[in-house]
Every structure is written in structure tokens, then in C-alpha cells.
Amino acid sequence: xxxxxxxxxxxxxxxxxxxxxxxxxxxxxxxxxxxxxxxxxxxxxxxxxxxxxxxxxxxxxxxxxxxxxxxxxxxxxxxxxxxxxxxxxxxxxxxxxxxxxxxxxxxxxxxxxxxxxxxxxxxxxxxxxxxxxxxxxxxxxxxxxxxxxxxxxxxxxxxxxxxxxxxxxxxxxxxxxxxxxxxxxxxxxxxxxxxxxxxxxxxxxxxxxxxxxxxxxxxxxxxxxxxxxxxxxxxxxxxxxxxxxxxxxxxxxxxxxxxxxxxxxxx
Length: 267
Known about the structure:
By secondary structure, the protein is an alpha+beta fold. Helices cover 46% and strands 18% of the residues.
């Protein structure tokens, strides 16, 4: 009888299956923690396993779509199936449950793309999109990670999250994009905090405008950001317009429902 094979069924014993599943999930967690990509040796060191063992599991994860390997660098990253599972888990969060009906309401009222983003390990991550009923729409994909300094969504996260959570990503973007001096950025973020809403016009993409509002949970922790995005001339992202007024109303209602508080100046 082969070692490690059940003497009754001829299958791999349940204990061995459980152990293999645990090892596989540890490697998936390692890929997430070292994202966006990592080498085999670094991943093996991170999870505390021999590289040969990690490599075997990675091959199985690649075959099932949970991991991918870059043919150019040889580095590994999470695959589409891992993203699918992760997004399903995120959508079960309270902020998603509460916000999704309001996203539909906003989309139906103004016939513009509306989406919800939460904070991920790489920055603002889009977890749900409601697209309008029109032939040409502004495409925003579930799973997209938005920039902190050149998107209204990212700037709202930058304004209301603790500096310790955003500083490294902000500095990285400032080096590559050079869009704000430190003083200009601080002034911009202070203005967003005072208004409780932010608009950009053509900053991330020419002719495309956006409005974003924060949603707060208990302890006034930022739970997510709702954004409406559309193209000129139908969507001007006017801070005094009906879209902004409705979005602020939705943000207040959602924050109150989640025991959070919107900025006092816009209550």
C-alpha cells in the first residue's frame, strides 16, 4: 500500500488534504502580503517554507487560476480567481451591504456611473460599479486600484484616513507624478475635510469629471468612498449642483446608519 493513501478508499487521507489546503492558503496570504508581485525566494522566506515546496504549490495555484507568473520577470502574483474570491468577501462587508442600494439609486437618478471603493493594501480599491443605461459610458472596473493624488476617490481617502496609512503611497505618487507640493496637497486635503465632498475635472482623464463623498462607520472611521463619474458636457461635477447635493445626502444617511458622523460643516 502506498504511503499516505487511505487503506479503505484508496484516496488521500482527509488530514493530509486539510494540511495541503492550509499550506495553499498560507502561500496565497503571502502573495497578498507581498503584492503586487514577488520572487519565489522572497515568498518562500516570507512563509517559512522551502522554495521547492512553495514552487509545487504555486504550480497548482496557477493551474487553478489563483496565482499567475510574469513570463518576463518570473515573479508571482495573485490570479483572477483570487481576485474574484477577495471581491466577494469584500462585498459582504457592512459598508457594501449598506451602500449598494444607494449606488443604484444614484445611477438611476442621474444616469451616470457610480462606484464604491474601500481601502486596500495598495490603495483605494473599487469593489462595486453601477453602470448607466447609455451606449457610451465611463468604464471603471471592479478590482481597479485608483491613484491617491489624481483621482477624486483617492484624494478623499487621503483627506480622511490617518496619515500613517497613506503617507508611503502618497510620497511614491508625488515622486512619480509630481502633481502636488507638500503645501499644496495639505491645503487641498484640508479643503476636502471642510466640505465633505470633492470634485475633479479632467484630472485623471481629459473630459471626464468625478464627484466623491466619504462614508463613515462607528468611531468616525472612514469605511469607504462613493464616486460618481461621467463625461462632459452631461456631467460637470459641480459642487453646488444636484448631483453633489444628492451624494452628500446619501453619504449622511449611510454614515448615520453605520453609526458614523460626516464632517460637521456639511451636516
